[in-house]
């Protein structure tokens, strides 16, 4: 499509965590506050876009890796529906959670990049022309995490403010209780995530010609591998549970069009809190508290986006996550355009900026 690549941005090792602090490069810092993380795994991409170095950057999302850094860096990020963009692979994993797209400053840039990469295999109708939404939606409002972890007061306040904005735009916003055993879902998803780490570790071992250890992989990655090895017998049950979840997710939308939740449990946390060489259990607790909202949409293959509508008292971005059923990417883009007009963010730039 004529795009010129300017380079490769940072990610955590193998994209396996919600911060971008790889030991090989050092931490990627948030342009809104250099003592804070950018989120992950597309943290380098989001930081570059937030700092206006580039207007957009490639990003991928297997558990929140577009939406989390978009939220923490104050840019727009939509996770497409499964199979919506790019060529399909012949050997898909048993639960295909990862998709590619981008983080952008404007909604329109995200739409144009989406059009360029659309799959034309007949599964979905083309995106077509998108304009700002001009009809009311039924929006489910769910400010609490599925697993019962704590949400920061400023995050809750920001989400309540966005819910009120949606009401003022004519939408019906209703309280919504997510019908999901969040602790069970989190446990199953985490084991599936750890299985991915084990697969990557096997590839690293084959490439290096020796068993992986701390000289090859980070402690966080090795901790996930160890988790998988201790629970490998549970994988058939885990896969069956996650495969059944897509139909269960669709039922959430029997009476609503869109679900509104936080993206993360708090604004960006300090550099080092989720460092890959920290104590595994302590880092895991922080990751689960922070990245507490995004994974269900990956398992369901659903469309979901982070919209930069709020900032904390400390001038840290707080994204709002709007999610829909699989294939409803166009609806989310329409809503995002409406929100961008109502509360523009383009001119709000971080202290560290190329402008």
UniProtKB/TrEMBL annotation:
Keywords: Hydrolase. The keyword Ligase does not apply. SUPFAM superfamilies: Amidase signature (AS) enzymes. InterPro entries: Amidase (IPR000120), Amidase_CS (IPR020556), Amidase_dom (IPR023631), AS_sf (IPR036928). This is 6-aminohexanoate hydrolase. Residues 1-20 are annotated as: Disordered. It comes from the Bacteria. Belongs to the amidase family. Pfam families: Amidase (PF01425). The keyword Protein biosynthesis does not apply. Residues 7-20 have a biased composition (Polar residues).
């Amino acid at each position: 499509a004529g795009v010129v690549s300017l380079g490769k941005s940072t990610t955590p090792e193998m994209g396996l965590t919600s911060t971008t602090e790889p030991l090989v490069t050092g931490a990627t810092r948030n342009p809104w506050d250099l003592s804070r993380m950018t989120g992950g795994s597309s943290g380098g991409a989001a930081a570059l876009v937030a700092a206006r170095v580039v207007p957009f950057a490639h990003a991928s999302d297997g558990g929140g890796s577009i939406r989390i850094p978009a939220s923490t860096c104050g840019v727009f990020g939509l996770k497409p529906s499964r199979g919506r963009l790019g060529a399909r692979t012949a050997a898909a994993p048993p639960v295909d959670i990862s998709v590619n797209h981008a983080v952008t400053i404007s909604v329109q840039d995200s739409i144009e990049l989406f059009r360029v990469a659309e799959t034309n295999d007949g599964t979905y109708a083309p995106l077509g022309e998108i304009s700002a939404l001009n009809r009311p939606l039924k929006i489910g409002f769910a400010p609490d995490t599925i697993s019962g972890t704590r949400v920061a007061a400023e995050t809750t306040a920001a989400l309540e403010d966005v819910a009120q904005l949606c009401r003022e735009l004519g939408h019906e916003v209703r309280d919504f209780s997510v019908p999901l055993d969040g602790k069970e879902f989190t446990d199953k998803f985490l084991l599936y995530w750890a299985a991915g780490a084990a697969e990557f570790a096997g590839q690293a071992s084959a490439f290096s010609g020796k068993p992986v250890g701390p000289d090859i992989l980070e402690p966080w990655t090795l901790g996930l591998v160890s988790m998988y090895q201790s629970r490998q017998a549970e994988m058939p049950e885990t896969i069956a549970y996650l495969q059944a979840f897509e139909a269960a997710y669709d039922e959430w939308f029997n009476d609503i069009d869109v679900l509104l939740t936080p993206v993360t449990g708090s604004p960006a946390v300090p550099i080092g809190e989720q460092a890959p060489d920290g104590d595994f259990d302590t880092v895991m607790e922080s990751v689960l508290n922070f990245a507490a909202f995004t994974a269900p949409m990956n398992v369901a293959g659903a469309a979901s986006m982070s919209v930069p509508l709020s900032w904390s008292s400390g001038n840290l971005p707080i994204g709002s996550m709007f999610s829909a059923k699989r294939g409803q990417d166009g609806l989310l883009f329409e809503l995002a355009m409406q929100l961008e007009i109502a509360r523009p963010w383009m001119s709000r730039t971080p202290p560290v900026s190329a402008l």
